Amino acid sequence: MQFSQVVQRVPRFLRSFYFLTGSAFLVWMLVFDANDLLKQYDMYAKWRELQAEKEYYLNNIEVVKKDRAELLSSPELLEKFAREKYIMKRPGEDVFILVPQEQE
């Protein structure tokens, strides 16, 4: 069987210049281009991750604003917060920190 006979068996539309050019363009865009499918998927996954982080931080901002408003409204709460979180003390006081022993 000669090459020309093999070519004749391929349907005509598959031998078309436009089909071959379009196919080559499609392969180039999907595989070889700088923004190929793999890169697009990675960028989409990163975008979803950043959106989740954005939601977390927006929710966290609301919690911090509420805590800040509470602390600034009462000097007793502010002192309690400073003592518990930052281990602050008044002059002349001794602070003992009890750390639970870890189980082995």
Describe it for me?
Keywords: Cell cycle, Cell division, Membrane, Transmembrane, Transmembrane helix. InterPro entries: FtsL/DivIC. Pfam families: DivIC. This is Cell division protein FtsB. It comes from Hymenobacter chitinivorans DSM 11115. The mean pLDDT is 86. The chain is rod-shaped. The N and C termini lie far apart (79 Å). By secondary structure, the chain is mainly α. It folds into two domains: 33 residues; 55 residues. Helix content is 69%, strand content 0%.
Notable characteristics:
2 domains, mainly alpha, 104 residues
Short description:
The chain has 104 residues and is mostly helical. Helices cover 69% and strands 0% of the residues.
* Fraction of residues in helix: 55-70%
Computed over alpha carbons, the radius of gyration is 34 Å
User: How does the helix and strand content classify structurally?
Assistant: mainly alpha
Assembly state here? single chain
Number of helices: 4
Count of DSSP E strands? 0
Unreliable parts: none
Quickly count the domains: 2
Strand/helix succession: HHHH
> How far apart are the first and last residues' alpha carbons, in Å?
79 Å
Assess the beta-strand content as a share of residues: under 5%
Shape: rod-shaped
